[in-house]
Structures are given as structure tokens and as C-alpha cells.
Amino acid sequence: MSSSLHVPCAHRTLLLEPSTHAIVAGYHPPTTCQLASALSTAKGSQSKKDVYGAGTFPAPLVLPNDELALDPECPGQDMKEWLGKCKQVSGKRKVIYVAAPPAVNDDASFVSNWVTPCSRSNNPPSTPSPITSDITAYLSAFYHGVPVHPLPIPLSFAFWDTESKAPLPKRSRSHPTSPKPTYITLCTDRNVTHIRTCPDPTRTFLQQFCLDDLLDCAINILPADAYALLLLVQHDLFENADDFVCGCTYSGSRVAVMSMARYRPALDMQQGVERVHAWSVCHCRAYVEACCGHEETQTKKRDTKRSSLVPASPGALSTLWLMHVCCTASHELGHCFGIEHCVYYACVMQGMASIGEDVRQPPYLCPVDLPRFWLLVVLE
One Pfam family of this protein, by short name (predicted)? Predict the structure, then answer.
């Protein structure tokens, strides 16, 4: 079996501006003045000459059903707004902690089955899941200047004793398809948290965990010297009326939870994930025009989709899985630094409306958001 992840794109022209669909959707690229405002600091204003224009850094693509196509008037976060929201990386709170996916106690071994997709077609030969130490190393390089360490607190899922007198979560929200959700217990060396579960409405996985409950647990175990905490889980998550969610951040509490479940390469075809035209080849002009309905027939689109998922070795797929998880992990931690969704450039902090859009985002902070992280490190 070939170790290649995909066949290369045969086109040679890149598009660094938004797609033609952006106009239809009502998205307007930021003006030079808006970019200058986004870059200006409290100590002085940014010169318009210093703003990176079109062609220097790629703009958001804004393809059909992308986040900015669905919400084209999403306001950009300027520097003044960010300065009022961010929290300084100080000597007392300066460490980013990464919590590995919780272990599973013997009395809750059934939850291990909830990690594997239900359909047999989604279960080719096993792909090794991302290793927490690799994710931690990536984040340490990405957020250079801030210590990144594994969380020293052991976590494990256990069977929920229905006779237990421990209080249930205060929130009363439940998944719309589960009128009476069940619970499992997430144990730490300090306390236990009851985690709501419910069937996956997409039928991709057997059960999902409640994101809000996991965030509550993350807040409870946040170390005193932590600037932020990222809790990784292998299970699928739900929140409110969403069918599933890959992650979320309570920026005020500096905690984030991220699921690796939907990034499993075996689900790529089901979720419309492009491997040929993932970042950075997603800016291929021919691909963008095809997505917007120009110069391509439906037959040709289907052929392109099939060619994007050629056979690959478990090792290559594991690397692909790790790459997607690392990008989303850096995105969620970016929110802990007070950075909101980016509307200025193609950026790892862009909002994402689907897994397909997720893999088209770049793995870097753009010229608007990177200086904000630098400021936090310099201010220390």
C-alpha cells in the first residue's frame, strides 16, 4: 500500500484573495484602515504602510458554507478590544498544561467502545491515534516563550454509581435526542465530576460526552501556576443543539477542551474532507472556482473527491491525524490568550463551520494575531 496521503494538485495558479462566493455571501475584505486598527497598540497607531496587503498573506477563502460565508458580518477584533480582554502571562501564571485523554477504569470499560466509529466502512486497519507528548511538543514550539507541560494530575473515567450522593451538574441542558441522559464519572486526585452522555445523532459514534461538563472539570483542576489548560479527549462531544463539537474554550477561565474523534482519517470521506486541496493547496484557483460552481461539472467534482482519498499507510494517516489535532489545539489555546476568531487573513484562528473547512485553515497565526501573542510574552 502506498504511503502517500494524496496525489499532488496538477494546477499551478494560486488565489490569494477571497473567492467570488464571498461577494454573494456579503463578505467584505477588511479595509486598510481596519487592518491598521487591528494592528495598532495602546502606545501608538500602526502605519498604513506597515499593513500587509493582498498578495502578501492569503485572505480567507470564504467558500460556500464556510464560517464567514454563513456569518459574513462577523466583526473583527481590533487591538484595543483584545488588550482589554487578554490576561498577561505572569510569573505566577505562565504555564500551558496539556491533559492527556483520561484513562478508563475497568468498571467503565464500555466507554472504550464509544471511541470507535460505528460503521464498518469507517474502520480500516487501525490508525494509531495522536500521542499527547507529540501534541505537547508541537504546542511548545507554536507558543514559543511560554512553558508547555503535561498535566501532572491523573484523570480517569469510571462507572457512575447511581446510589452516589455526589451532586449532579448544575446545568440542566441535555441533548435534544436524549431526553434522559446517562452519566459517567471523570475522576481526578481531587474530586469527581459527573459527565452527561447521549447517543450520537449522526450515528457516527455510539455515545457522546457533554462538553460543558468536561469544561467544568477542567476549571476545577486548573493548577495554580497555569496560564491555560487544554484537556484532550478521544470521545465525540456535544453542546447545546449542535450534533457534535470538536472543541471549546472558556477564555475567561483559561481552559479548553478538544475532541480528537472527528479528525480520525477514516471519517474524511464521510465529512467531505479534501486531502488534495487541504492547506495550502486549497488556494488553488481551479479548486476554488470548482467549489464556487465555475468551470467544473458535477462529474468532475466527484472525480476530484474520489482522487483525494487514495490509499495511505497507517503511519501516514496517523501523521495526518496528528497535524489536524495540533492545529485545532493551537486554535483553542489561542482563545485562552484572548484572541477571537480572525476575519482578516487566512489564519489558524479563523472560525470553522465544518471539518472540511477546518483542514483548509493554515497552521499559523496571521500578521494580526501573532503580534498579540508576542505582546503577552514580552510583557512578562
Answer: Peptidase_M54
CB 35 within 8 A of CB 56: no
In whole angstroms, give the CA distance from residue 89 to residue 224. Answer: 13
Rounded Cα distance, 185 and 179, in Å: 19
Q: How far apart are CA 232 and CA 257, in angstroms?
A: 6
Look-up of cell digits 460556500 = 64
166 pLDDT more than 80: no
Q: Which residues, including other chains, have CB under 8 Å from residue 183's CB and lie 6 or more apart?
A: 160, 168, 194, 195, 196, 197
| In CATH, 86-264 is 2.60.40 | no
pTM, full prediction:
0.87
Task: Mark 324-358 as b/e (b = at least 16 C-beta within 10 Å).
Answer: bbbbbbbbbbbbbbbbbbbbbbbbbbbbbebbbbb
Helix (H) or strand (E) holding 285: helix 285-291
Phi, psi of 18 (to 5 degrees): -60, 155
Upper half-sphere CA count for residue 11 (Cβ side, 13 Å): 17
Q: Find the radius of gyration of the CA atoms of the chain.
A: 21
In the block, residue with C-alpha cell 480572525: 342
CA distances from 342 to 30, 85, 224 (A): 11, 15, 30
Residue, of 336 and 272, whose pLDDT is higher: 336
Range name among 74-88, 99-113, 193-207, 290-304 with the lowest pLDDT average: 290-304
Name the residue ranges covered by the structural domains of the chain.
1-74+269-308+341-380, 86-264
Cell numbers for 331: 486554535
And the C-alpha cell for 312? 495511505
Q: What is the DSSP string of 5-54?
A: SSPPP----B--SPPTHHHHHT--PPPHHHHHHHH-BTTBPPPGGGS--T
Q: CA angle 206-210-214, nearest 5°?
A: 125
Amino acid identity at 208: Q
Q: Can you say how many angstroms the Cα of residue 138 is from the centroid of all Cα atoms in its chain?
A: 14
Fill in the DSSP letter of residue 347.
-
